[in-house]
Design goal:
Subcellular location (chain B): Cell inner membrane
Largest sheet of chain A: 3 strands, antiparallel
Radius of gyration of chain A: 21 Å
Strand order of the largest sheet of chain A: 7-6-8
Order of helices and strands of chain A: EEEEEHEEHHHHEHH
Distance between the termini of chain B: 6 Å
Shape of chain B: elongated
Largest sheet of chain B: 4 strands, antiparallel
Structural class of chain B: alpha+beta
Strand order of the largest sheet of chain B: 4-3-6-5
Keywords (chain B): Cell inner membrane, Cell membrane, Membrane, Transmembrane, Transmembrane helix
Largest interface: A-B, 71 and 81 residues
Number of strands of chain B: 6
Protein name (chain B): Putative paraquat-inducible protein A
Order of helices and strands of chain B: HEEHEEHHHHEEHHH
Number of strands of chain A: 8
InterPro entries (chain B): PqiA-like (IPR007498), PqiA-PqiB_transport (IPR051800)
Number of helices of chain A: 7
Helix content of chain A: 40-55%
Strand content of chain B: 5-15%
Helix content of chain B: 40-55%
Oligomer: heterodimer
Number of domains of chain B: 2
Shape of chain A: elongated
Number of domains of chain A: 2
Distance between the termini of chain A: 25 Å
Radius of gyration of chain B: 23 Å
Structural class of chain A: alpha+beta
């Protein structure tokens, strides 16, 4: 087994340079002197604040999925869709690959990410490691860039502008929920989840 | 010899999953820096510790070439059909951008052009340059190359934009004979291109840019 030095040293993941770790002050960001990659930043959000953000995101996510996103009107007829309407439509139209991509990146992965974070943070809040902490943290790391809700918001905007030439377009609550979700994701983007490894948590009972 | 010590010189290894700094104990595993069979588990998260991502050059090349092969039909084939009473119109990625420009949204046209054309092309070029220069152990513009890699990682997934637009329009434009939108095979190829380029940039190891640095200093 390798021997660990969890607190003292830090290695830049972009160039393998070794640094002695230092406690960061509010607003400070440690950058690699060789390759300028970010090493670590001050944890602005406490565990409680992160949990609050995740719960908010979960509520907004439910709304973004339940409510229709946008409605089109053409000579008295109306047509609207939710995210699952999109997924099923692509499946029916012989684009199952796209359907699976959309379902994974816009529904299952974001859902998984929020559930995992909620679970881990809920226990971290009580100073404990959640049951399954290690494998769940690894899954969270692997999810990486595969959640794409923010791209979908821009896509919806483009679709609305394209449809606007031929149809009456009405924005539905779903699109606002998505916009709020994007905002929350942006706030959360600055959070380095690895800090949970370093929190001094008691092992799960 | 640079003033900044690198992990390999100190006999240290960073876990790529949890970031833990570990010492490789000689005799425990073949952690001699040759990148072969470096099987040792991180004591914190149990992931395999490796000096470098395995077969980084070969895997990245393979995924990049596969992505490029998908990118050709993605651009040549139409991605979406719009059908109305007396008109059937097949759109390619580029014709969609042109239409958006004409429809009076040049800003959005620029965004879609960037996400669908500029970003994938940038990824192909950037990763090829990174691969070739790192394979040669080149010392040229290392800092800029490191930044280029991080840019590619950051913007890569925004290319999915056009796929989502087609999917949303397909679900929305359902007015039986009056007006219909159907996805066409181009969009599948485009989706696969995006996924493959994301895997390609993930399998490239940016630490390879800096390997061999001390021999030029």
């Amino acid at each position: 087994m390798g021997k660990a030095f969890p607190e003292k040293l830090l290695i830049c993941e972009h160039c393998d340079t070794v640094y002695r770790r230092r406690v960061l002050e509010r607003g400070e960001v440690a950058r690699c002197a060789l390759c300028a990659a970010e090493l670590e930043r001050y944890h602005l959000l406490s565990v409680n604040a992160m949990l609050a953000l995740i719960l908010t995101a979960a509520i907004v996510f439910v709304q973004a999925n339940l409510w229709p996103i946008v409605t089109l009107g053409l000579s008295g007829q109306h047509s609207s869709t939710t995210l699952w309407g999109v997924i099923l439509a692509m499946w029916r139209e012989h684009s199952q690959v796209v359907s699976v991509l959309v379902a994974a990146t816009l529904f299952f992965f974001p859902l998984l990410k929020m559930s995992l974070l909620g679970w881990l943070l809920w226990f971290a809040r009580g100073g404990r490691r959640a049951p399954g902490f290690v494998p769940l943290m690894v899954i969270l790391h692997r999810l990486g860039p595969w959640t794409m809700s923010e791209v979908f918001v821009l896509g919806a905007l483009v679709a609305i502008v394209k449809a606007h030439t031929y149809f009456d377009v009405t924005a539905d609550p779903g699109i606002y929920a998505y916009a709020a979700l994007t905002l929350l994701i942006t706030i959360f983007a600055g959070v380095d989840l690895r800090q949970l490894w370093d929190e001094d948590l008691e092992p799960a009972a | 010899m640079s003033a900044l010590p690198r992990a390999a010189e100190l006999g240290l290894i960073a876990c790529t999953v949890c970031g833990l700094v570990c010492r490789n104990v000689p005799g425990d595993a073949q952690l001699d820096g040759d990148g072969v069979d470096d099987a040792m588990a991180c004591p914190r998260c149990a992931s395999t510790l490796r000096r470098r991502k395995p077969d980084s050059f070969a895997r990245t090349w393979a995924l990049l070439i596969a992505a490029f092969l998908m990118y050709i039909p993605a651009n040549v084939l139409p991605i979406m059909r719009t059908a109305s009473l007396n008109d059937i119109d097949d759109n390619t990625i580029i014709s969609g951008v042109v239409e958006l420009w004409r429809a009076g949204s040049p800003n959005l046209a620029v965004i879609v052009f960037t996400a669908s054309i500029v970003v994938p092309v940038l990824k192909f070029l950037a990763l090829s340059v990174l691969l070739v220069s790192s394979q040669r152990g080149s010392g040229w513009a290392r800092l800029q190359r490191a930044k280029l890699y991080r840019l590619v990682e950051l913007i890569g997934y925004w290319s999915m934009l056009d796929v989502f637009v087609v999917a949303l329009l397909t679900a929305l434009v359902r007015f039986s004979v009056l007006s219909l939108v159907e996805p066409l095979p181009g969009v599948i190829f485009f989706g696969l291109t995006v996924v493959l380029t994301m895997f390609a940039s993930m399998s490239f190891d940016p630490r390879l840019i800096w390997d061999g640095k001390d021999s030029d200093d």
